[in-house]
């Protein structure tokens, strides 16, 4: 029985993509939803309660996208800063809408206690195409470093730079989906000329802590808050989640700075990346959004109590 995975339809196995392969990949990407109507319109409705700013602009051919951020209206220099990012991978829907739900339903409870800075959709081109990469086949969430190859990442770094050392907390809202295994990991292997090694998708919510500063009690406070809303991913038979050792229930670790991940953009003592699983038969889109919002609330509550 042949169990070899089907070669990715673009490129030659073992050979990294060049310009022709990237152009072919781009030609296959189609707009499937609207950033303007689904995200920007929601942000505009929040303008009466928060300060809204355009912190950059993406231009991909004839497609242009304003990069939008929302700040606390009662911003005070003596308050700690909380950074919330979503949609670094545009296809991870609840990262975008969970962040917006937090703003709409919960953010005003923190008025006068923290300064909130929220970038709910870091990658709007990819949001519209339900994709992980930007239009140049670059993953923004491996590009948060000097001379970033992704304008999405560079724009966030410019936005955050004045606040980098004042941040108390950064929570970056993500999802792990079945398409990670069916499309995005095979595409990555093909792009880089490497063999695709099939894996498994974790069934449930989990967190990615910083290897250099894991803050285990902080991570568990978030797991506890999310569990009533959606189930927590168990470790697999190897004691791992998505190829990384489970260090505590529902928690793995990555070296954030080394990998150029979004959660590395501040020196905040409290950092985490959420991973919601939207493809479970046990989860609805509403639960996924609510889980993201609950994670943000729990993270802020813990950080304020232990600052």
UniProtKB/TrEMBL annotation:
Peptidase M14 domain location: 31-307
UniProt lineage: Bacteria, Pseudomonadati, Pseudomonadota, Gammaproteobacteria, Pseudomonadales
Cofactor(s) needed for function: Zn(2+)
Entries under Pfam families matching the protein: AstE_AspA_cat
Keyword Transcription regulation: no
Protein name from the UniProt record: Peptidase
GO BP terms: proteolysis
Domain of life: Bacteria
GO MF annotation, one: metallocarboxypeptidase activity
UniProt keywords, alphabetically: Hydrolase, Metal-binding, Zinc
Family: Belongs to the peptidase M14 family.
Matching InterPro entries: AstE_AspA_cat, Peptidase_M14
Presence of the UniProt keyword Metal-binding in the record: yes
């Amino acid at each position: 029985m042949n169990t070899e995975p089907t070669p990715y339809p673009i490129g030659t196995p073992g050979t990294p993509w060049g310009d022709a392969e990237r152009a072919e990949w781009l030609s296959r990407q189609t707009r499937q939803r609207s950033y303007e109507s689904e995200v920007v319109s929601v942000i505009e409705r929040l303008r009466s309660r928060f300060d809204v700013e355009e912190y950059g602009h993406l231009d991909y051919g004839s497609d242009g996208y304003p990069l939008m951020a929302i700040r606390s209206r009662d911003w005070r220099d003596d308050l700690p800063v909380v950074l919330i990012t979503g949609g670094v991978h545009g296809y991870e829907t609840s990262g975008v809408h969970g962040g917006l739900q937090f703003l709409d339903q919960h953010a005003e409870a923190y008025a006068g206690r923290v300064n909130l800075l929220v970038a709910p959709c870091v990658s709007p081109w990819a949001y519209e195409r339900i994709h992980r990469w930007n239009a140049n086949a670059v993953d923004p969430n491996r590009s948060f470093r000097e001379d970033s190859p992704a304008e999405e990442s560079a724009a966030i770094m410019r936005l955050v730079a004045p606040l980098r050392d004042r941040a108390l907390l950064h929570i970056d809202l993500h999802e792990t989906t079945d398409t990670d295994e069916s499309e995005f990991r095979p595409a990555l292997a093909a792009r880089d000329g490497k063999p695709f090694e099939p894996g498994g998708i974790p069934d449930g919510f989990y967190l990615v802590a910083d290897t250099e500063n894991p803050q285990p009690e902080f991570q568990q406070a978030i797991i506890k808050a999310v569990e009533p809303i959606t189930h927590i991913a168990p470790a697999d038979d190897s004691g791992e989640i998505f190829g990384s050792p489970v260090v505590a229930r529902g928690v793995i670790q990555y070296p954030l700075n080394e990998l150029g991940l979004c959660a590395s953009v501040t020196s905040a003592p409290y950092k985490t990346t959420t991973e919601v699983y939207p493809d479970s038969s046990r989860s609805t889109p509403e639960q996924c959004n609510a889980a993201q919002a609950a994670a943000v609330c729990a993270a802020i509550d813990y950080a304020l109590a232990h600052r």
